[in-house]
Amino acid sequence: MNFNEIIKDVLLTEAKEIEKAAANLSFDIDKAVDMIINSKGKLIITGVGKSGLVGSKIAATLASTGTSSFFLHPTEAMHGDLGMIGENDIVLGISYSGESEELVQILPHLKRFNIPLIAMAKNENSTLAKYSDIFINISVEKEACPLDTAPTSSTTLTMAMGDALAVCLMKKRDFKKEDFASFHPGGSLGKKLFVKVDDLLRKENLPIVSRETKLKDAIVVMSEGRLGNVIIIDNNKVIGLLSDGDLRRALMNESFSLDCNVEDIATLNPRTLKNKNLLASDALSIIEDYKIQLLVVTQENDELVGVLHIHDLIEAGIK
């Protein structure tokens, strides 16, 4: 049995059904988008079985892209949770057959409260479709299942339709990266757009020496500081930075001496950052562009504020 061929057949079958749906769009997407955009309530997704599972995913996608949404199981709705649906809400009901008993049972109650209904089903003559204000056809010619029975192509198409609706709403709202990050503050994008240099700055117990410090003493401070660098201060202002790279290069010089002043082999007027409110992701770009490990942060007058090490950025998940 060639499983690669089976996988290929499944993927192609489902892809073809999505292509057919894309070529034969028959519902008023503008009406659906405007209905949702103009609503003062939530978009509530409901369905049972595989349709319910797909509905949960669609609700999560909508909620994370600017459309207030949640999933409601129709059985729970019949046992008290109908109260979760407000007068300004919209319901998106999903049932491939359009006849799922649990879902059909709540439809008269939705109409009783004049709740707008968007339906996803295969048959526009189904009970779900007849109750709906907008009907979205999710019919497929062939399930990817070898028995042509298990929901496979149909659930893939349903999920894709949900994604398409979410994207239309994003476009309508001019939903941007910053908006997306607001709903994902703990994710990598949230960190990239919200974490600032000041949030990761080291400000205490920094390896600081004066310009007159002997190199041998500066090396001790460097070792104790565990940053691979020593910051040289004069009159409370940063004037130089001694890195382990500077030290290695000095060792190659025949006139090298541990008794020289630290500033003699240090990098004077090093690259510094004067904006502690800069996004950490932008600071990482500076570190990468200049191929340095430590970025010194100062006031406008060059007084030391703190340091940002590349390891701090990596540990914080800044990419």
What is the CATH T-level topology of the largest domain?
Rossmann fold
Low-confidence stretches: none
Number of strands: 12
Determine Rg (CA atoms, Å): 31 Å
Q: Supply the CATH architecture of the largest domain.
A: 3-Layer(aba) Sandwich
Tally of helical runs = 14
Strand content is 15-25%
| Through-space gap between termini | 43 Å
| The level-1 CATH class of the largest domain | Alpha Beta
Strand order of the largest sheet: 2-1-3-4-5
Whole-number count of domains: 2
Largest sheet: 5 strands, parallel
Shape estimate:
elongated
Structural class: alpha/beta
Helix fraction bin = 40-55%
Mean of pLDDT: 92
Give me the CATH superfamily of the largest domain: Glucose-6-phosphate isomerase like protein, domain 1
**What is the string of helix and strand elements?**
HHEHEHEHEHEHHHHEHEEHEEHEEH
